[in-house]
Design brief:
Largest sheet: 3 strands, antiparallel
Order of helices and strands: EHEEEEEEEH
Radius of gyration: 13 Å
Helix content: 10-25%
Strand order of the largest sheet: 1-5-6
Number of helices: 2
Length: 88
């Protein structure tokens, strides 16, 4: 299955700036190419592709792989400690 940027617009994601090591949330991100769901030989599924997001701390666009994005369901403390937002 492949997702295009149009299929996910408006969804807020959590990112961690690779330079500042600070988390931020934004809905202003885009898929570079496409996202593909892949399965390994054990049946585990993962998402492959590249996601670009404007960083409110560095004021540049960073590129992330889906596995670099923090899971929003791991801890409510992680969600509360995120800084930034949709500002540019």
């Amino acid at each position: 299955m492949i997702w295009s940027n149009q299929a996910v617009m408006g969804m807020e994601l959590i990112f961690v700036c690779p330079e500042q090591k600070t988390a931020f949330t934004t809905s202003k991100w885009k898929v570079d190419g496409g996202l593909t769901a892949v399965s390994d030989s054990s049946g585990n599924r993962s998402l492959k592709g590249r996601i670009e997001a404007w960083c409110p701390f560095c004021l540049v666009e960073h590129t992330f792989s889906p596995d670099e994005l923090p899971c929003p369901f791991k801890s409510t403390q992680d969600k509360q400690s995120t800084g930034g937002g949709d500002e540019q």
